[in-house]
């Protein structure tokens, strides 16, 4: 049996797969120690199949331990070592301010304060020339200075160490001698690419979070072993699984572990349905996560900001906007109807939850429009309160000078516009036409909006899996195991030979190349291109033309970075089974799914396949 | 007063903004020069057929209020589908010469129909063919010395080629201009799509409503400020002494008048500021003082009125040089408005450094301390006002140019004292690895950024060549091994620090 467990903000979901049989269970998330909720959810799932822990052969896990620690800015007491004269590079960042017009707005406080930053007397030039050598004795002096700051973790980032790591290695060894048992993250091991601010920031995050994550994984492994479960594999931000040991060594790799489960689920849907190009949106109570599957592959990014901190690591490319079922609708001082970013949250929640909320939310608009049936029982014993929703929307309607129905419809249009913007950022702004994609909707609120959003984007096919409420956990169970190695090479002209490319690609299951025209400072990532300079040139020119409308025949090509991926494919699983009947749907109609409601507007029709997956087409 | 309902208002406003952002994304990704790509020194905007700016994606504030003048400069030209315009002449729609603006008219259909409006982009090019590499000379006295002056003209392939050949790094110039054309093409497509959905009249109603909406919000904010006149006086630092700038800011009802009467006359150097740039700085400061969420459109600018003495430093006339006006005088104009309303000031300069030779040009602006606020310390090591460009990574710089960075750190102790401390400045020291030219345009070297409400001033900045202090504006030659050290100013503090008990 395969087991996937996904820790969400409110619930921990477990999915157990035995051949074609898929069962799911939920247990409240336990923020103080997520492993308690994990074990509870697993027990509940096992009970449904009357199975024993020993029946589980593979246990995959996505969690938010690293994410939460990063967002809250809590981590181990960390010290930072940089080339002398450059110890402030993380705080300086890229020198742009946090907000253009709120002048005192700040970036998140540095994880390492000034008094725990240590300069190392060393220097490499960009070409690897040693300008100031750091020998073992010098490294030990630095380690002594670091020890005096009493750290629980140490991050090291020296200039040009991505290509010339010898001084970092020497410091790593000296720190291990001086500070046995203290976690050390070296920038060339964590990141491997040039641009010091991002590499240093990532290394610092890695150092500060790794001890916390290691503690958590130790507890989880102990509990799993005690329960007779196999050792869990951990979802990385890249969308692939790794061992608990590897995850504990580099916490920066799992900062997006939770959302990456959703992305893995999206690629599972692509495989199971044969629909290879999917725009995915996972809409819950407070936010909406968007990702893109192109030709069966979840699109990745080489780096992004998480919680205001730069992370230069391969991650699934996920864009999050603050539009969910609980997003509050309001009238702004200029008289426009706005939705979010504030959410009514779980308490008091939408007015329709009957917990004292009086502000109109997206959920309330759905109740007014009868997409959600008043009187429906929700998980947790809630019953939707129609009059409360109506009262909340009607107060806003008076304010806007519209009738209640028009206001409810307007709330949905504005919320849709927000999500459409998020989907456009992920498509058109990256040079991709959304009309070539099917829209995959999941999460509690996703299927309510799917067809409307598809219409806005000119998309004519919508996919809604039956297991949408626990899709991330299902994705975990099916995910590949994966290791990434990313290395800046900076080869151009005569250096860019077949031999060098072959050497760079050797032993990897997949290789991607980051290249640019010389003088550009952004790279394009090329997938599936042979280790051949001419092929690389042609692929780059094509990609540049596709994205920017022209190729520059005169410009020299520079290979900046090689991205190597080692992959062990995950198990082949389906999306579970439906009710067995191939239901035909004809809009306008509202369909109740397990844990979600699907709105099929006029002009849309379709049906459910044997797995219960609904596919809608625009007529 | 517009008649668009509150829902359509929000939805169309979002669509216009999204279109501008997409134009910006295309421009940043397709451009070659690091000014645009890494430092995002560019903006994109959409205009209606009458030339009113309906939405803007501004990556740096100095472009905020200055784009409309560019479209106004080509409004009367003969437009046609597929035709684009280019300009950089500060006296005909531009700001300073490195900022090149490309404007593409948008028609109903690719083959014609009614004129819907204009898509425009402005980008800071790394070089426009001035006497000195980088085209930010410290000592220019006429516009011609600052580079190729482009009066509004058609930008076709031949023009791209011809203009690029007159500048340094012609391949990069070509690529950057093409990137601007590509951004314009995206704006054209998006506006055409909107017109198909809403109808041409519907689109016009939507843009008009969005302009009115921004105006209503701006007026609501201004009405919330107490009526009355506040004043401020500040200076710019030139070799001959100080140039004084004066402001009387009057809030009356839901409007604001910014009166610069009494400010210095034209500058023989290049601190002259075209009116569009002065306006831009004012719009920025008012936005800071009111609600930053007001959509950036010409509607928000309607209640802001400027009184600027004709032909003064803040209303430059041809053929005055303007290189520093855009970057430095604009900062001081914003400072005046903020100071009039009781704000502690940030570093007040962009610390422009240009290093170069015939083979390369490297231009960088360096962050410093921000002023503190009534509730918080000022951020350290950031751009404080009219710029928000990113730094060039040390590793990227050293890979590309014959320059080494020997120090890049916060300048500790430079933030002004107070209940809330001003932000710290920055130290960035360069070593030349071969002979090259250096050009500095800086401010706040003699006069410190003031604090407010009892807070102390930030430390003034300084620039050292091999340990010897240089003037605020300087152009000279560096030999291999020379070290140029820039120490940027700290921000002013806010409030009186409580005495130790």
Describe the structure.
- The complex is a heterodimer of chains A (619) and B (501).
- In chain A, 32% of the residues lie in helices and 27% in strands.
- With 619 residues, chain A is α+β, with helices and mostly antiparallel strands.
- In chain A, strands 13, 14, 15, 20, 25, 26, 31, 34 and 35 form a 9-stranded mixed sheet that branches. Chain A has a 6-stranded mixed sheet with strand order 3-2-1-4-11-12, with helices on both faces.
- In chain A, helix 13 (446-457) links the parallel strand 25 and strand 26.
- In chain A, helix 1 crosses helix 7 (196-227) and helix 2 (65-72) crosses helix 7 (196-227).
- The longest helix of chain A is centred in the middle third of the chain and has 32 residues, at 196-227.
- Chain A starts with a strand and ends with a strand.
- Chain B is of the alpha+beta class and 501 residues long.
- Helix content of chain B is 29%, strand content 25%.
- Classes of the chains: A alpha+beta (619), B alpha+beta (501).
- Chains A and B meet through helix 3 and helix 12 of A and helix 1, helix 5, helix 6, helix 7 and helix 10 of B.
């Amino acid at each position: 049996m395969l087991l996937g467990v996904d820790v969400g903000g409110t619930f921990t979901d477990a999915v157990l797969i035995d051949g074609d049989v898929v069962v799911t269970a939920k247990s409240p998330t336990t923020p103080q120690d997520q492993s308690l909720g994990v074990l509870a959810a697993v027990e509940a799932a096992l009970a449904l199949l009357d199975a024993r822990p020993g029946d589980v052969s593979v246990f995959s896990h996505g969690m938010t331990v690293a994410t939460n620690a990063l967002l809250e800015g809590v981590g181990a007491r960390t010290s930072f070592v940089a080339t002398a004269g450059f110890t402030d590079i993380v705080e300086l960042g890229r020198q742009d301010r946090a907000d253009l017009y709120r002048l005192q707005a700040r970036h998140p406080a540095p994880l390492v304060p000034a008094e725990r930053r240590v300069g190392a007397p060393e220097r490499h030039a960009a070409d690897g020339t040693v300008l100031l050598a750091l020998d073992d004795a010098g490294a030990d002096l630095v380690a002594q200075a670091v020890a005096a700051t009493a750290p629980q973790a140490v991050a090291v980032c020296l200039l040009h160490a991505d290509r010339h790591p010898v001084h970092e290695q020497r410091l790593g060894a000296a720190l291990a001698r001086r500070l046995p048992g203290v976690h050390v993250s070296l920038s060339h091991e964590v990141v491997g690419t040039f641009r010091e601010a991002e590499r240093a920031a990532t290394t610092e995050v890695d150092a500060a979070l790794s001890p916390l994550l290691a503690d958590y994984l130790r507890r989880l492994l102990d509990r799993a072993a005690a329960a007779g479960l196999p050792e869990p594999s951990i979802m990385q931000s890249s969308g692939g699984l790794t061992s608990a040991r590897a995850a504990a060594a580099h916490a920066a790799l799992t900062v997006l572990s939770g959302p990456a489960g959703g992305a893995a689920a999206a690629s599972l849907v692509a495989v199971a349905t044969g629909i290879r190009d999917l725009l995915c949106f996972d809409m819950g109570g407070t936010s909406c996560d968007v990702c893109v599957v192109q030709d069966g592959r979840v699109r990745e990014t080489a780096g992004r900001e998480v919680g205001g901190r730069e992370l230069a690591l391969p991650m699934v490319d996920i864009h999050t906007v603050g539009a969910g079922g609980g997003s509050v609708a309001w009238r702004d001082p200029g008289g426009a109807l706005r939705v979010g970013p504030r959410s009514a949250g779980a308490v008091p929640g939408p007015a329709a939850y009957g917990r004292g909320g009086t502000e109109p939310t997206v959920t309330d608009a759905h109740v007014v429009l009868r997409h959600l049936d008043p009187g429906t029982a929700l998980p947790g014993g809630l019953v939707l309160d129609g009059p409360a929703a109506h009262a909340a929307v009607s107060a806003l309607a008076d304010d806007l000078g519209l009738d209640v129905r028009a206001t409810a419809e307007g709330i949905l249009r504005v919320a849709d516009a927000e999500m459409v913007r998020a989907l456009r950022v992920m498509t058109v702004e990256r040079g991709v036409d959304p009309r070539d994609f099917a829209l995959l909707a999941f999460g509690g609120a996703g299927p309510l909006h799917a067809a409307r959003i598809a219409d806005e984007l000119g998309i004519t096919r919508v996919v809604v899996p039956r297991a949408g409420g626990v899709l991330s956990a299902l994705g975990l169970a099916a995910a590949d195991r994966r290791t990434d190695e990313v290395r800046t090479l900076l080869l151009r002209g005569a250096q860019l030979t077949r031999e060098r490319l072959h050497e760079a690609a050797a032993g990897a299951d997949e290789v991607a190349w980051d290249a640019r025209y010389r003088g550009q400072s952004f790279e394009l990532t090329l997938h599936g291109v042979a280790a051949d300079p001419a092929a690389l040139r042609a692929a780059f020119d094509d990609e540049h033309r596709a994205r920017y409308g022209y190729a520059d025949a005169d410009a020299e090509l520079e290979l900046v970075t090689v991205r190597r991926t080692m992959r062990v494919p995950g198990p082949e699983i389906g999306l579970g089974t439906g009710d067995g009947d191939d239901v035909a749907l004809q809009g306008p109609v509202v369909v109740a799914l397990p844990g979600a409601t699907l709105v099929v507007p006029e002009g849309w029709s379709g049906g459910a396949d044997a797995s219960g997956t609904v596919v809608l087409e625009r007529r | 007063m517009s008649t668009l309902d509150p829902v359509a208002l929000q939805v169309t406003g979002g669509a216009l903004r999204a279109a501008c952002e997409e134009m910006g994304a295309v421009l940043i990704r397709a451009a070659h020069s690091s000014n645009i790509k890494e430092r995002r020194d560019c903006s994109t905007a959409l205009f209606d057929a009458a030339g009113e700016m309906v939405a803007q994606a501004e990556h740096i504030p100095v472009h905020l209020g200055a784009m409309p003048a560019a479209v106004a400069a080509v409004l009367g030209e003969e437009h046609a589908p597929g035709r684009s315009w280019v300009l950089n002449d500060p006296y005909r729609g531009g700001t300073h010469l490195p900022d090149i603006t490309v404007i593409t008219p948008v028609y109903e259909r690719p083959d014609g129909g009614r004129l819907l409006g204009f898509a425009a982009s402005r980008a800071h090019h790394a070089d426009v063919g001035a006497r000195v590499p980088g085209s930010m000379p410290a000592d220019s006295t006429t516009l011609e010395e600052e580079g190729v002056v482009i009066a509004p003209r058609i930008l076709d392939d031949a023009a791209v080629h011809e203009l690029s050949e007159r500048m340094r790094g012609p391949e990069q110039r070509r690529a950057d201009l093409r990137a601007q054309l590509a951004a314009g093409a995206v704006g054209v497509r998006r506006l055409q799509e909107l017109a198909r959905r809403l109808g041409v009249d519907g689109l016009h109603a939507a843009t008009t409503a969005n302009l009115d909406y921004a105006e209503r919000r701006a007026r609501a904010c201004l009405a919330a400020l107490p009526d009355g006149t506040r004043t401020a006086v500040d200076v710019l630092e030139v070799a001959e002494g100080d140039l004084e700038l004066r402001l009387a800011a009057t809030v009356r009802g839901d409007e604001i008048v910014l009166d610069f009467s009494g400010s210095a006359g034209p500058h023989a150097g290049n601190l002259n500021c075209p009116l569009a740039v002065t306006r831009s700085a004012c719009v920025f400061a008012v936005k800071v003082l009111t609600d930053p969420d007001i959509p950036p459109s010409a509607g928000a600018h309607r209640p802001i009125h400027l009184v600027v003495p004709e032909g003064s430093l803040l209303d430059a006339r041809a053929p005055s040089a303007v290189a520093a006006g855009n970057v430095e005088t604009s900062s001081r104009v914003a400072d005046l408005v903020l100071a009039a309303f009781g704000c502690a000031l940030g570093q007040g300069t962009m610390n422009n450094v240009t290093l170069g030779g015939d083979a390369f040009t490297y231009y960088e602006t360096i962050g410093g301390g921000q002023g503190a606020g009534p509730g918080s310390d000022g951020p350290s090591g950031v751009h404080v006002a009219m710029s928000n460009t990113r730094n060039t990574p040390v590793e990227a710089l050293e890979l590309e140019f014959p320059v080494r960075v020997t120090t890049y750190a916060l300048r500790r102790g430079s933030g002004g004292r107070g209940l809330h401390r001003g932000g710290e400045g920055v130290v960035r020291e360069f070593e030349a690895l071969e002979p090259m030219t250096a050009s500095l345009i800086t401010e706040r070297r003699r006069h410190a950024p003031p604090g407010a409400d009892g807070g102390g001033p930030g430390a003034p900045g300084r620039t050292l060549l091999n340990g010897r202090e240089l003037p605020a504006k300087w152009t000279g030659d560096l030999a291999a091994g020379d070290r140029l050290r820039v120490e940027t100013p700290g921000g002013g503090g806010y409030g009186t620090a409580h005495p130790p008990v």
